[in-house]
């Protein structure tokens, strides 16, 4: 990994850890930013890690010592894919790529049928979560507290035919804009490619000049690359099974 890419990975990892911390705080579980790692001593909400490394070369023993491995579902986001957590009873859950693109709108592929805008308010969160989850009943994972500061976290929604068919979460920082949880429903015009294009157009309007970072894998990574993103480094998520 060259110096430029490693810089984008560090920026993306920090931005993503700040988003994880925001979700945890909304659930009454404040995390801690330490030397090279963010962590929560108490089990985090579903789908969110108990620790995330912020720099390469983190000490695995130190990372594990910060979290509750006795609770089912404990996980670690290995942001630089350089930890070996097998001795502590972890297995690799999935691998992905950090991604980066310069500021500005996507090269095209958006759908004129979908209108992108910030979520209207807390009353709209259940519908957003249902669309994001593929139709499941909302669980309250994304709490209204996340909308309290309209500049810190923005839930973006793509509307078509009177309902949400696409969406994403934007987390602006000092140097980068993190995009996470991007989705398109099965019947969304243009699918994920169009969702990225629409999301990036709205992001460029709201945060001109901020480069965009995130992480994706598989077909979702292909869709992001089609809209100007470049993979800049691997990450792994480890799940405690021991």
Describe the structure.
This protein is α+β, with helices and mostly antiparallel strands and 242 residues long. It has two domains: 3-99 and 234-240; 103-210, Aminopeptidase (3-Layer(aba) Sandwich). Helices cover 26% and strands 29% of the residues. It has five helices and eleven strands. Strands 1-2-3-4-11-5-10-9-8-7-6 form an eleven-stranded mixed beta sheet, sandwiched between helices. The protein is globular and about 50 Å long. 45% of the residues are buried.
The CATH topology of the largest domain is what?
Aminopeptidase
- Radius of gyration, Cα only, in angstroms? 17 Å
CATH top level of the largest domain?
Answer: Alpha Beta
CATH architecture of the largest domain: 3-Layer(aba) Sandwich
- Rough shape? globular
The tally of strands reads 11
Helical fraction equals 25-40%
CATH superfamily of the largest domain: Gcn5-related N-acetyltransferase (GNAT)
Low-confidence stretches: none
Q: Average pLDDT across residues? A: 93
H/E series, N to C? HEEEHEEEHEEEHEHE
Q: What portion of the residues fall into strands of 2 or more residues?
A: 25-35%
Q: Report the sheet with the most strands, covering strand number, pairing sense and barrel closure.
A: 11 strands, mixed
Give the number of helices: 5
Oligomer: single chain
């Amino acid at each position: 990994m060259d110096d430029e890419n490693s810089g984008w990975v560090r920026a993306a990892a920090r931005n993503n850890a700040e988003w994880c911390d925001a979700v945890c705080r909304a659930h009454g579980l404040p995390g801690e930013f330490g030397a090279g790692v963010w962590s929560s001593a108490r089990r985090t909400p579903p789908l969110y890690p108990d620790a995330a490394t912020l720099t390469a070369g983190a000490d695995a023993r130190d990372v594990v010592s910060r979290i509750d491995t006795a609770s089912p579902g404990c996980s670690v986001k290995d942001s630089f894919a350089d930890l070996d957590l097998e001795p502590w009873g972890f297995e690799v859950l999935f691998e992905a790529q950090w991604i980066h693109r310069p500021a500005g709108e996507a090269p095209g592929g958006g759908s004129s049928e979908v209108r992108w805008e910030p979520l209207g308010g807390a009353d709209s969160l259940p519908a957003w979560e249902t669309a994001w989850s593929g139709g499941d009943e909302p669980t309250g994972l994304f709490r209204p507290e996340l909308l309290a500061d309209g500049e810190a976290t923005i839930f973006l929604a793509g509307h078509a035919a009177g309902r949400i068919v696409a969406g994403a979460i934007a987390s602006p920082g000092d140097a980068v804009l993190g995009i996470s949880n991007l989705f398109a429903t099965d019947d969304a015009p243009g699918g994920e490619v169009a969702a990225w294009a629409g999301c990036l157009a709205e992001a460029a309007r709201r945060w001109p000049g901020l480069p965009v970072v995130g992480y994706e894998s598989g077909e979702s990574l292909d869709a992001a690359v089609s809209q100007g993103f470049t993979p800049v480094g691997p990450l792994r998520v480890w799940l405690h099974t021991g």
